[in-house]
Amino acid sequence: MTSVNLRSDNVAGVAPEVMDAIIAANHGSSPSYGSDPLTDGLNAKFGALFGRACFVQPVFTGTATNALSLSLLAPGWGAILCSETAHIHDSECGAVELQTGGAKLVPLRQSDGLIKAEVLEEALTQTRWGNTSVAPPKVLSVAQATELGTVYQPGQLAGLADLAHRFGLKFHMDGARFANAVAHLGCSPAEITCDVGIDVLSFGGTKNGCLCAEAVVCFDEALSEEVRYRARKMGQVASKMRFVSAQLHALLEDNRWLKFAGHANAMATRLSTGLSQLQNVELLHPVDANEVFVSIPEAMRSALTSEGFGFYDRGGGHVRMVTAFNTRAEDVDAFIASAARAQERGDQ
């Protein structure tokens, strides 16, 4: 039995405040299919968060959020540029291709999960524009935080946006861990989205204390009608949508989304700091958010597992640990102590 599970932030439970909001929404009756006051109030709630008009569609899963977001931006005959480590490319079973009607995903090389401006520029300048033999790039998609736990600086995003828009591309952000990125940067949400040219944001809630709540956030009013129809066609409009929307309201209330993410980030930093002091443990990527990637000897991995610690084994001696809104400092310290004991025993 795994007693401390750091395999993913998806293994964490639901924040009590979010569960309370679901229970509160269960009193009485309410209009169905998103016509309820909670769902109707999301535009204003997110508008206050970003300091500008937003058009929000709540959905149930991160995969659906990305697929719906990109279906608004990419034609079926176009291409979507993304990182080679992007979840839309290697973890979402072709959902984006399906919902866009065939748009081609083109993975670009990355450095610690980040697409560099020069890589994007090379891809765009080498495109055979106007040649119908190839799918022309129509969208750039980045993850913030990235799948490797790193975070783009606002200036990096602005540079990518400038290139993308110069070549006529739309700009999408996969924000499954958007809260962790904002907490790390200490900036406003707008500074790394609408202010730097993001057209549509996939806003994550489930990895940050929600039960099953994400949101497609459109910064362009022209998409406000289409997103509603596409969501319905995808089966992402629940008859009792108020229970999804209630989670998002609770998450944003009292700045909980940033408090939860800030705690998760702090626990990841604590974990990476402790592990990096051990021999034969190598930190593979900078720890900006709540994911820690390390190389650990096989015997140490076995010792951790036998003592009830869970992590994601990526093969080749590389493992990933992910902290969450409710990760306890004593559990992080226990994980480090277990690894240290294995080192003292000479487990290699």
UniProtKB/TrEMBL annotation:
GO terms for molecular function: lyase activity. This is Low specificity L-threonine aldolase. Its cofactor is pyridoxal 5'-phosphate. GO terms for biological process: amino acid metabolic process. Pfam families: Beta_elim_lyase. Signal peptide: none annotated. Belongs to the threonine aldolase family. SUPFAM superfamilies: PLP-dependent transferases (SSF53383). InterPro entries: ArAA_b-elim_lyase/Thr_aldolase (IPR001597), PyrdxlP-dep_Trfase (IPR015424), PyrdxlP-dep_Trfase_major (IPR015421), PyrdxlP-dep_Trfase_small (IPR015422). Residues 5-296 form the Aromatic amino acid beta-eliminating lyase/threonine aldolase domain. Keywords: Pyridoxal phosphate. Homotetramer. It comes from the Bacteria. It comes from Nitratireductor pacificus pht-3B.
